[in-house]
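Box 3.1. Reading complex inputs
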Amino acid sequence: MKPAVNGDIYLPMPATAVQVAPMTASESFFEFRLDSGSDLGHMPGQFVEVSIAGQGEAPISISSSPTLKGSFQMVVRNVGNVSRAMHALKPGDKAGIRGPFGTHFPVETAMKGRDILFICGGIGLVPVRSAIHYVFEHRRDYGKVNILFGTKTPADRLFTEDMERWKVQPDTTFLETVDRGDPRWKGHTGVITTLLPDVTVDPAKTVAVICGPPIMYKFVIMELRKRELDDDRIYISLERHMKCGVGKCGHCQVNGLYVCQKGPVFRYADVSAVREAI
Amino acid sequence: MSKPRVAIFDFACCEGCQLQIVNLEEEILDLLTVVQPVEWREAMSDHSESYDIAIVEGSITRPEDEARLKQIRERAGILIALGACATLGGVNKLKDNFELEDVKRCVYGEAAAMPHLATARVKAVDEVVKVDFKVHGCPINNKEFAAIVRCLATGKTPVIPSYPVCVECKKRENVCRYEYQEICLGPLTRAGCNAPCPSAGFWCFGCRGAVDEPNVNAARDVMARYGRTVEDLKSRMLLFGSRQEFANV
Amino acid sequence: MSRTIDIQVHHVTRIEGHGTIVLNAKDGAIRKIEWQVPEAPRFFEAMVRGRSWEDIQTIVSRICGICSVTHSLAAIRAIENAMNIRGSEQTETLRMLTHYSEQLESHSLHVGYLVAPDLLGQKSVVPLASSHPDLVKTVIRIHRLGNQWMELLAGRMTHPVTLKPGGFARLPAETELRDLQQRLKDIVPALTTLADAVLSLAGKLPAFDRPTEYVGLVNPGEYTFYHGDIGSTDTRETVSPQKFESVVNEYVTPQSTAKWTRWHRDSYAVGSLARYNLNADHLLPLAKETAGRFGLKKGCCNPYMNSVAQVVETVQIVEHSLQLIDRLLTAGIRPERPKVTPKAGDGAAAVEAPRGILFHRYVFDENGVCERANLCIPTNQNHANIQKDFEALVPRIIDRSQDEIRHLLEMLVRSYDPCVSCSTHCLDVEFV
Amino acid sequence: MNAKKLCLNAMQAWVESLIGKCRVIGVQAKGERFVFAPLTRARDLRLDYDVTLIPPKACFLPPQETLLTFTGPAGYRSVVDDEPFILLGVHPYDVAAIAQMDRLFEQDYADVHYLARRRGAVLIACDIQTASPNVFAGCMGTATADEGFDILLTRVGDHYLVDARTDAGKALTDSLASAPDADAVSLARREQLWLDNRKLLRKHDLKPSLAELPGLLERSYEHPVWKDKARHCFSCGSCVMVCPTCYCFDVQDEVDWDLKCGRRCRTWDGCMLKDFATVAGAHNFRKDKADRYRHRWYRKGKYVYDKIGQIACVGCGRCVTACVAGISNPVDVYNRLLEAP
Ligand SMILES: Cc1cc2nc3c(=O)[nH]c(=O)nc-3n(C[C@H](O)[C@H](O)[C@H](O)COP(=O)(O)OP(=O)(O)OC[C@H]3O[C@@H](n4cnc5c(N)ncnc54)[C@H](O)[C@@H]3O)c2cc1C
Ligand code: SF4
Ligand code: SF4
Ligand code: SF4
């Protein structure tokens, strides 16, 4: 999906918000449609650069499956200029979109025919949701599905309606935890690794997909290694400061790798020796 | 959104920063399409009691000024410190290197005891009240000021460089002042001014204040390499009231 | 009919710094009439002690945002006098040229932005932009040129950085000077337009004469802002800037944080009108013609006419600058780098700020560390005179409405173009 | 066409004719140093310069440029500057750096803003006549250039050899048809100059060979040199601003007073600056000076090499001069790696 050489890689495509809905105190859900009418043409795990004129651009993961036609979905946390301006958008408002950029989860290759273990912390669920939906839409292509999701507090939970549907999928385990509960929270409490003993992982058949805050990876991967899951069966998605999204500006480099090009989705075996990765 | 009501106040300073606003020339008319000034003593004769944005120029040098500043803070939604006197204390802070009595006597002699000549330790605005945004510099760069006003009008947090002046100095193709054995504070000072001083052949004297993590140890080594002393460096660092990380070299 | 007048104008607007007018009268009897300066004192003379000669200009420039070039020049020349340094002819010419940029910037600001609203019955320049757009455009053009000119030669607008003891940190390129020369030529019609506008309003300036001593720089054969000795309209003798203390005779009064001055009388005035009264014979042709159109005569002692003298000076400044640039271009700009070996000494200098004569003195030890300073600022020298003007003016207008009296008093203060923020930084070691 | 031989007067006349034809950006004095700047008369050209303060990358990737304008939430327009120009007087090490940037800006996603300027430019290179105090191009294989330019100028005695190598170059030398061809003696002198330059432009002597550099770095991640040197680093970015092979950038939006229309602008940025890798939540992925310092040297000696097979230091020595702290000498750093930690 590279733009033509004489096209401008920095020129956003006009797009229109079709749905904007608050999800938590700081995260909102967005559905956009490209004004050209074409599909975005992404794969699960890829991201776009969202452009708000005057505020700038921010890399945002696509949260919907490519099988959703005509529009695409994102979840954005209100942390700065672009995201704040996005939160002020109403259906019908315009934004600019560049992309999709980056690598994706290997839903058509390495993941196919395997058991899938999704491990997501907080907003890390956003790109992974795209893969989860893809897997469920092609359910017969994959084995057992385990989804582990953790947030800081019950108020931070995302996609709660989706979760109800995921729980009832065939041959699927959905487990959830919060770091700190509240009086109404009846579920599991503890960091995300405390969910792992509750799922059985067959290292020979499993591919793991991990996305969450930087601190999460080290501990989750340690646990998976204990379960003898090979590094080349683990996929992670990394976040870095990013300006261009196309391997020029230098901000997103982890050692020699540009996250926007060699990532954001990496096979762990490829970056386990890259010191700045995790 | 209706235009934010803006009031400008001055405390002890040279009013050069307000002058930079005047120096926007016809752009002031554009400025007025974005904000509504309700109080600006230097330029107009109106007064007002409430405002969305208070812009405060100058440093706080008398107890009665502290009270006035607190009152301004109470009436303002957003408070902006304008210029080095407000953000750092500015040259006024040089006074604090001496005993107050000595300072007064030096300037007013026998009359120093007269009550209207009272003075106190110099404070930057954020040493008295909460400051929401700082417009750095002595004087401020009016292009930067205008950009900050436009940011606030669009709900954007202004992006103020966290890197040192050398970045902008290099972009402007200057010969480094150190090549002339001069002490330049560029490597320790927050950029955003576009390095007008080194570009005019003069050292950076630090009027925008220190970067977040100034490497004062490196500065010490550099002084030794250029045959200057830490005292030389310190003396220059203090000119605009930059804070303790500078003073403790 | 019993009538009480009570005027308290706190913080007179449209001036630099804070000044307060107090007038209290009952049935025509004046109980109290005072010009007060409550601006927070800043103690510059105390602050510069212990500072290196290299940093003095940077510090004292901050006395005033509007006269920063003049303060820098006074400091630099005082330092040079203390250390026996002489700037080259090129340096001196460029300094004069830099100095003029500030005069133009300041005069156009004062006449256009601060005084014009008075004459046109407005509270600020903002409504003038729609009621008198052409006038405002003209003022902006002149003001901007002053600033760009300053940026070119001084390194930036306000608080110069190129001016150093011994010479310039950066010299302008000849192409830049040529470009400046062209822009100065182009601005002459705008100056005439401004003069015309002020001329058409000159009738609104109050007729108020009060015999006054005027003090400023004088130099043989020259309408000077930069060179020369201290002259007075009360005497033919002149005083060297090195002895400026014998002219200013500063003293502290309870109504002011700024110190007052007196020479031959109880007060004296400095500024454009003072310079005019001392030097009008040496105006260049176009400036002379401009003065003629206003009927401005040497010996004028109406303080409200200071603004007219400023208009005349804008023309003089541009005319003279064109000559100076010619001189520089003919000689060609020689690369020179300032070189100073600090030594012990005591030096003073006098330079004309836009609002009047300014004095600096510094004493250095053998390492070039400042031991003592004495600065005497123009607005300071005018405070006593403003008070004397008040005392003479109020009885003549006491039967007018309170608003009118207030307006006339405010206008009087503004016509001095006071820079109160700078005047409170003055100091003197001797208390009278 | 053979190389032409021009006396200094003819050379000046030719440059004057170029100025008449096209925008020329040439090396000129700025005080006692040199810069690339628009050339308005041939006599301002200073081909005897040692090094320019800022590399000619600024002609293709300006310190500040507008990428696009917008007139509202969806009205974006590219701004592409393709006005042709002649870049006159580029030293061989800068020729090498430009060639490297060309590849990086073309690779994967082509950057039209860079490429439009680049494609509109005719590069006139010039062999080095004066060595700068810190040049070590001789160690980096960039003291002379065989390709990457349109015309090569070489001063031999009181003549210049003008050697057009491409069609674009030949078009500019058409007017020299009647000038004498370079004779064998001059050509031999040019060969000698090349040999000398390769040998002599080594104010610092790099001990590891270029081929072994990436491997050496590979093994030196924990070497104490990074911390030792970074202790003195101001994170001032001077080294990366002046480097001809550094091209990291930041992008920021600016709005006009109508608060709707505006521009998206690109400015030079650098990996040595404190917040270069900071993300939301104030998490800084490279918060230690030593990490940033190491990253820079890895980028020069390994990361770019991994990408395009070239070392991203051309030995211009600019960073050595620019670093106030005196810690930015690539040769010092890479030589230290040969010492046991
Ligand atoms: C591949 C990828 C996918 C992503 N997907 C999502 C997603 O799906 N949803 C989501 O919400 N986020 C996502 N992010 C994160 C998001 O791009 C960032 O949070 C982004 O900064 C938001 O932009 P902003 O303009 O709102 O914030 P900014 O205005 O850029 O600021 C965010 C915060 O970071 C700080 N900051 C940023 N840059 C600097 C700097 N140079 N120096 C100092 N501080 C700085 C600011 O102070 C501020 O507090 C993703 C990031 C990547 C790389
Ligand atoms: S002159 Fe000052 S600001 Fe410029 S590079 Fe040198 S140290 Fe930095
Ligand atoms: S690293 Fe230094 S010597 Fe090497 S190319 Fe960059 S600036 Fe030149
Ligand atoms: S120039 Fe020197 S001090 Fe500045 S960032 Fe580079 S290495 Fe550090």
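In summary: Chain B touches chain D at residues 27, 30-31, 33-34, 147, 150, 153-154, 159, 162-164, 166-167, 169-171, 173-176, 178-179, 184, 186-188, 211-215, 217-219, 221-222, 225 (CB under 8 Å).
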